[in-house]
Every structure is written in structure tokens, then in C-alpha cells.
Specification:
This protein is mostly helical and 407 residues long. The chain has 15 helices and two strands. About 1% of the residues have low confidence.
Length: 407
């Protein structure tokens, strides 16, 4: 009898716990997003992005954008009208994952053809900017220009990247070079550097954001960049171009800049990490450099190692010697110009040897002079120096008041 009572009393508590979990965490939004991602992956593999499948790709894009519109509308309604911030934030987080093409649908679209892929990329980019603008406009009451411009730049790189590599492949007999991938990794590093520069030199909008706004700002800044890294890594596999450790150098340089936005940037361990990142970038580039070379002058080629060394110098100057950055950077530019367009090492050695020989000839000539010749030379020099002194004195303004004899 007692066992039946316990069994009866435990059953409602389990139901209450399960119901409380479902109400508090509401996992159905996540299950819905995972189902949509699974459907996109399955359809991507089935469509194979052929030209004849373009209507199917457009239909898939339409379904995905309709799903995102529902996520945005429901999320903003829960936040603005019902005050249910937790569920609304979850919906906006899931929508941001589809916004930055974590379903990898744009990679299929960009591989259709160069012209068609570019047109579809522009269409997808326009829709993405429209969706991002709706979210930030609803949460901020306006469109933060600094945030929106940076998000638009990242989304532009993300959506146009597959079409750019398709263009490379068509002009190079179906091949994409490691140097082109290395340039793409530098685009990612440049985005990270640009984020730090615009936050430092422009009005930092994030200083006024808290709560949900700060969450969305960080999400819209970090998630597109993460998606670009994932897409670029996937393109390495698609085009059979090996990924080497030297490709990480631009990311390490960019991360050293981005750490300046950390609230703990002045801590000793963070400063040490920022110092070690450029050095690690140089080591990786020197040990495992990608096959890339850029001719700059008749006798000089820019290699990955030299490029990373220069950027590492700029990073260290910016991070630790910002007060003297102008003088240090100008000096570095002067040295670089001297290396590029100045005399070569053989020319410098030849100039030193010529100067030494002419100096020794002049020294022997002076050593062979007699005392009379030296005396006459010294007297001539005395008159010359006297003339120079008189010329300087006569060029001075005359004194208007008479000077006393005692003075």
C-alpha cells in the first residue's frame, strides 16, 4: 500500500518538472532550427547546384527566407509586446545563424555560374541586410550606422566569396591557387583589424548598449566573421587546396588587434597574449608558408614571411607603442622604401670601397706636404675665416642706443 502511494506521489512531480523544463527552456525553437538545417543540408546534396536546378535553389531560398521572417517577427513580438525576452532572444539567435548562411546554401548558389551566382549573391545579400536592418531598427529605434556598416561589409564578403572563387576557377582551368586562398585569409584578418580601428577612432556605439542590445551587437559582429572562416575552410576542401599553418597568420594578427576591445586588455596576461600572437604568426609563416609571392620591384619579391613580419611590427607598435606610432611607422616606411628603391648591398659595398680609396689618396697627398706649404695654407685659412666672421657680424642689425666705453 505504501509503494502505491509513493508511486502515485512521484508521478505528478515528474510531470511538473518536465512541464517546468519545457516552459522555462522551450527547446522546441532549437529543434525547429535543427530540423530546418537538416532539411537544407539534405536538399543541398540532392540539388548539386546544376544550372537546371536553379528554380529549385530559388525555391529553397524562398522557404528559408520565409522561415527567417517568421523567426524575426515572432522574436520581436515576444520582446516588444509580451516582454518575454528569453524566448525572443533565442529566436533572434537562431535567425542570426541562418542569416550568416550556416546552412551553406550560398556556397551552392555561388557555384552555379559566375554571372548567375553574382546576381543571386546580390539578391541574398540584399535580403540579409533587410532582415538585419529590421532587427536593429526594432531594438534600437534607429539603425546604428557604425554597427550596420560593419555587418554589411562582413555579409558582403561572406556572400560574394563563393562567386569570387568560381571566377578564379574559370580563368585558371578549374584550379584555385594557394596564393588566392592566402589573400582571402588576409581579407578575414583585415576585417578584424578594421573592427578595432573603427571602434577606436570612431564614436564607439557599444559603450551605450546593455542587455539585449549588447547581446545582438556582439552576435552580429562575431557570427558573420565565424561563418566566413567556416566557409573559407570548406572552400579549401572543395577546391582541393591544402590548408597550411601559415594561413593562420592573418587571423593571429587580427586577433591581436581585436583583443584591444576586451574589458581586460590592460591585464598582464592579456598583454602577453597580444605580444605572443604576432610572434607566433611570424613563426608559422616562416615554417609553413603558403605558395605565394608578389613582385614589388625588379630585385624584390614580397613573400608571406616578409608580409607577416611587417604586419607583426605594425601590430606591436599599435598595441604597445601607440603614443609613438607615427614616428615608428614613418621610420619603418622609410626603411622599406630604402630597401625597395635604394642601392643594393653590392652597390653599398662598392661605394664604401670607393670612398675609402679616395680618402687614402687625399691622406697621402696631405702627408707629403712641407712645413712651408702647411704654413701658407694656415694663413690663407685665417683670412678666409676672418672674412666669414665679418660677413656674419655685418649682417646683424645695428644697435640704436650708444654703448658706454666701460661696457
Amino acid at each position: 500500500m505504501t509503494l502505491n502511494v509513493h508511486a502515485y506521489t512521484l508521478r505528478p512531480s515528474f510531470r511538473a518538472a518536465l512541464l517546468g523544463f519545457l516552459v522555462h527552456h522551450n527547446p522546441f525553437y532549437l529543434l525547429s532550427a535543427l530540423s530546418m538545417l537538416a532539411g537544407c543540408y539534405a536538399l543541398n546534396s540532392g540539388l548539386a547546384a546544376r544550372t537546371g536546378d536553379l528554380p529549385k535553389l530559388l525555391a529553397l531560398l524562398g522557404v528559408l527566407n520565409a522561415y527567417e521572417a517568421i523567426l524575426i517577427g515572432l522574436g520581436l513580438y515576444l520582446i516588444r509586446r509580451r516582454g518575454i525576452v528569453r524566448d525572443g532572444r533565442t529566436l533572434l539567435l537562431l535567425q542570426a545563424a541562418f542569416l550568416v548562411d550556416l546552412a551553406f546554401l550560398d556556397a551552392e548558389v555561388g557555384s552555379v555560374s559566375v554571372r548567375t551566382g553574382c546576381l543571386l549573391d546580390v539578391l541574398v545579400l540584399t535580403l540579409a541586410l533587410l532582415k538585419a536592418g529590421v532587427v536593429v531598427r526594432a531594438l534600437w529605434g534607429r539603425v546604428p550606422r557604425q554597427l550596420f556598416a560593419f555587418v554589411a561589409l562582413q555579409l558582403g564578403v561572406l556572400f560574394l566569396l563563393p562567386s569570387v572563387f568560381t571566377q578564379f576557377r574559370q580563368h585558371q582551368n578549374g584550379n584555385v591557387t594557394p596564393g588566392q586562398f592566402y589573400g582571402a585569409w588576409w581579407v578575414v584578418g583585415a576585417l578584424m583589424i578594421l573592427y578595432e580601428l573603427q571602434a577606436r577612432f570612431l564614436r564607439h556605439e557599444a559603450a551605450f548598449d546593455t542587455g539585449l542590445r549588447l547581446f545582438i551587437r556582439r552576435l552580429y559582429v562575431a557570427l558573420p566573421l565565424t561563418s566566413i572562416v567556416l566557409h573559407l575552410s570548406l572552400l579549401h576542401w572543395v577546391y582541393r587546396v591544402p590548408f597550411v599553418a601559415g594561413d593562420l597568420s592573418p587571423l593571429l594578427i587580427g586577433a591581436a588587434f581585436v583583443l584591444g576591445r576586451s574589458a581586460h586588455a590592460s591585464r598582464g596576461d592579456i598583454r602577453l597574449i597580444r605580444m605572443l600572437m604576432p610572434l607566433a604568426a611570424v613563426i608559422l609563416s616562416a615554417e609553413h608558408a603558403p605558395a605565394w609571392r608578389l613582385p614589388l620591384a625588379a630585385r624584390f619579391d614580397l613573400t608571406p614571411t616578409l608580409l607577416v613580419m611587417g604586419m607583426a611590427y605594425v601590430t606591436i607598435v599599435y598595441c604597445f607603442f601607440f603614443a609613438r606610432a607615427l614616428r615608428l611607422l614613418v621610420g619603418a616606411v622609410a626603411v622599406a622604401l630604402l630597401v625597395l628603391f635604394g642601392p643594393t648591398l653590392d652597390q653599398i659595398v662598392a661605394g664604401v670601397v670607393w670612398t675609402w680609396e679616395r680618402g687614402m689618396v687625399a691622406f697621402r697627398w696631405l702627408a707629403d706636404r712641407s712645413a712651408i706649404e702647411w704654413g701658407l695654407t694656415a694663413m690663407g685659412a685665417a683670412f678666409a675665416f676672418l672674412a666669414l666672421g665679418a660677413g656674419i657680424s655685418l649682417r646683424k642689425e645695428p644697435v640704436t642706443e650708444p654703448v658706454a666705453a666701460s661696457e
